[in-house]
Design goal:
This protein is mainly beta. Helices cover 9% and strands 47% of the residues. The two termini are 25 Å apart. 38% of the residues are buried.
Length: 215
């Protein structure tokens, strides 16, 4: 299952009474709202490092690092690491989604200087303790639909039901769908569109409390 992502960080603080180094950090962060940053853009299957060209970001974007891991039947199958321009609302976020086939973990970190290197994002832990929520469970590659009549027992902080669709376009188009359980923090990632080199990815996430239809 090919699931990627890309995301970012928010830095909110006050300068009143701050020490000089803290003021510099605040000014660096605020400057990205008005002056576009230059950030490294790259993608790697190494979950620590990647290299690539520097690009000019839009206003309100920071330099971000994203880690994604996919585990199928408790066997690690995908580790992805990327760096790119990240909207500040997505910075320092992390979350998980799970169904009967796989668990996907995602985490984002950011920094606010030209071509800075964000900290390596820390992936969230996953609890196996049932929480009483039951969600539809299915996934498919090559289609944006799947048979969601099966269910999965949610665990830990995954107390939302999720439908995640991803469309990846390069020389050809790949579509995937994932129904399962999600943490609220993963649901907060929301819709996302990103182009890395000749690869364009669009992701949509819709979540419910597990008792009603998609909102």
């Amino acid at each position: 299952m090919l699931y990627l992502l890309g995301i970012l960080c928010v830095l909110s603080t006050q300068t009143t009474g701050a020490k000089f180094p803290e003021r510099i950090q605040v000014l660096d962060a605020l400057s990205s709202y008005y002056y576009p940053l230059s950030c490294t853009t790259c993608l790697s299957t190494d979950n620590q490092v990647c290299q690539g060209p520097s690009v000019t970001c839009q206003n309100n974007y920071f330099c971000g690092s994203t880690r994604v891991t996919i585990t199928a039947y408790d066997i690690p199958v995908i580790n992805l690491f990327s760096m790119s321009c990240m909207h500040h609302h997505s910075c320092d976020e992390k979350g998980t989604i799970t169904n009967s086939d796989a668990t996907i973990k995602r985490a984002v970190s950011c920094c606010s200087n030209d071509n800075c290197t964000p900290p390596i994002p820390t992936l969230p832990d996953r609890s196996y303790k049932p929480n009483g929520i039951v969600c539809p469970s299915c996934s498919s590659i090559g289609s944006l639909t799947c048979d969601s009549t099966d269910t999965v027992q949610c665990t830990g902080d995954e107390d939302m039901c999720v439908q995640q669709s991803i469309t990846i376009t390069a020389n050809s188009t790949l579509r995937t769908i994932f129904h399962g359980c999600a943490t609220k923090s993963y649901c907060d990632f929301n819709a996302y569109s990103k182009t890395l080199f000749n690869l364009k990815m669009e992701m949509k996430i819709a979540c419910t409390s597990g008792k009603s239809g998609l909102r």
